[in-house]
Amino acid sequence: MGTQRSMFIVSFLFKLFLFLSVHVRAQRTTTNFAFRGFNGNQSKIRIEGAAMIKPDGLLRLTDRKSNVTGTAFYHKPVRLLNRNSTNVTIRSFSTSFVFVIIPSSSSNKGFGFTFTLSPTPYRLNAGSAQYLGVFNKENNGDPRNHVFAVEFDTVQGSRDDNTDRIGNDIGLNYNSRTSDLQEPVVYYNNDDHNKKEDFQLESGNPIQALLEYDGATQMLNVTVYPARLGFKPTKPLISQHVPKLLEIVQEEMYVGFTASTGKGQSSAHYVMGWSFSSGGERPIADVLNLSELPPPPPNKAKKEGLNSQVIVMIVALSAVMLVMLVLLFFFVIAIDPRLGSGYDGGEARLALAVGLLCCHQKPASRPSMRIVLRYLNGEENVPEIDDEWGYSKSSRSEFGSKLVGYVSSTSITRVSSTSRISQ
């Protein structure tokens, strides 16, 4: 009896040990995290270069200084390989993140950022500009890199070999800054999968990205879309069979982001939130809702520049003001002093009034050439010029007010048909 009890206890303890071993191993080989903002998570993110966690919770990879790089990796390596007696496979994983890219100006932007699988959490000696903080001139293309990067590229024609002809594209990079596959940035309409909607990575607005890798089929799906949509497009931008990834991935890899700026081409790169899941049959990264994330950074590029409509308006108003100044000059010296008293005052007033009316601020108030001739021939009276001269009372300048007062005086604004230019 005692022997049977002992055997039962031993068997129970052995099974408990196996269960706990499997449970601990499963925990060790499964990675799940979600950062809805990065405040309070500084110890879980390894940052280098220009990268920093801002007080508002945003992860900034680079500011807008020239030729800088920034990296941010999850502090623990992720187990990505499954090994058994017959083969080796990559574990399925899923990641979602919301990012914002703010250019210095509409013509001064770059270079982009990456989501990267790397054997180390630091990209030592990584280059800026087209190297995106991942590679450098010496190790570019080296199979010993063991680096896979999904590239969010914002500069057209940035590569020496002229392979990057698109700009504003997503690329898949294996050990090299040259993408094996590039796709222009679009999302597909859920009601019509043939309808593409393009948008700019460097819009200054939050953009959502979702990467899903299925280990069983070796398929990688990449979906990118404006976060304001509020829903995920069902058709991904990239759906690619990537067996080459097996040559890259090691037993454990670090996951994270890199970014860079260039000389005269610089943008600030931010990550607002990030979730990741690996292990199991079909891991799904946590959904990131904008309402749960820190507010996006202010788009200073919009404030620093003037849009084209404002510029056109300024130029137009400047031209009108210049014409008015010229007219004022001619008003002052209109009567040649050498004429003495040998001129008809009515004719002078008529000529000045007609000239002023032809330059009226309101296009609708300007007379046609036929009407001008009728004025000059005395066939029709010159109408009185309105006091506002095309401005609102609240917006007239001191100069404009004085000019209006001058031109609307009774001595000049209505000229009778008894005054006419001599034939």
TrEMBL record:
Q: Where is the signal peptide?
A: 1-26
Locations listed in the record: Cell membrane
Record-linked Pfam families: Lectin_legB
Q: Does the keyword Signal apply?
A: yes
Coiled-coil spans in chain: none
UniProt family annotation? Belongs to the leguminous lectin family.
**Protein name listed in UniProt:** (thale cress) hypothetical protein
Lineage, opening ranks: Eukaryota, Viridiplantae, Streptophyta, Embryophyta, Tracheophyta
